[in-house]
Structures are given as C-alpha cells and as structure tokens.
Amino acid sequence: MIPTELTPEVAAIGIALGLVFSLICYLTTNLSPGGMITPGWLALTLVEDLQRAGLTVAVTLLTFLTTRVVQKLVILYGKRLFAAVVLTGVVFQGAVTLVLQHQLPTLYANQTLGFIVPGLIAYQLVRQPKGATLMATGTVTLANYVVLAAALLLGALPGS
C-alpha cells in the first residue's frame, strides 16, 4: 500500500521527476504540460489524496472560465495574462481552502505549492490548444504517478 503521508525527500523526488517528464514532453511536442512543476505536484497529490486532486481540477476549470470572461472585458496578454490567471487561481484555491478547512483539516496540510498549480494549468489552457494541453498534462502526470507509485511500493525511495 502507498503511504498516505510522503516525506519531504519523496516530495522533492516526485517534483524533480515531474520536471524531467515535463521537459521531455516540452522538447518532443513543444507543449507545456500545464507548467513545469504541475505534473510532479499532481502525481504527488494523486499518491497522497485523490480528493485534493479533484479539487485542483475543479479550481482549474473555474480559473480558466473566469479568465475567459475577464479577457472579454480587459486586454490581457504576456506577463499581465500570466499574473492575472495565476492570481485568479490562487484566490479561488484560497477560497476553497477557507471554506473546507474546518470540514477537512487534513486535506490542506502542507499544500503551499498547490495554490499556484490551478493557475499554471489554466494559463496553459489559455495559451495552447485545450485538448493538446489536457492530453500532455494527463500523460505526463500519469507517467510520473506510475513511476513514483512503483518506487514507493517497491520501497526504492528514502523514507518510504
């Protein structure tokens, strides 16, 4: 069985593994899989808590839809677009955290990086073809998850 609480070492390895898979994806397809750190973080989240991964997907969708509405009202491009999308994701993730924190306190322990992930994914959905971005993000996350879960199950990672 995969441990529910990951050590900092395992988390660092999971993020690093995600960076390697993301870079391979970007170099071979010229698509960003939702940002460089996203697949590693999503894979760690899938290993730890499926609920949190589902909430990340929901917040990403809300962030993307909100960005599309705001783009009809305000000219957003380049760094302003990036900042607006990531900030929107952080605000929505923060709101979800505040609402659910008392009901599910363990859901949000050690989740700082998770505040920016929905914004990173939504930003790539705005910039790249949606289907290709979702496929790249899903594929790289799945590859990372399989390697990470296998290593955890085999006891090949420190502290596992």
Automatic annotation (TrEMBL):
GO terms for cellular component: membrane. Keywords: Membrane, Transmembrane, Transmembrane helix. One of its GO terms (biological process) is capsule polysaccharide biosynthetic process. InterPro entries: Capsule_biosynth_CapC. Pfam families: Caps_synth_CapC. The chain crosses the membrane at residues 12-32, 52-70, 82-101, 107-126, 133-157. It comes from the Bacteria. This is Poly-gamma-glutamate biosynthesis protein PgsC/CapC. It comes from Kitasatospora camelliae.
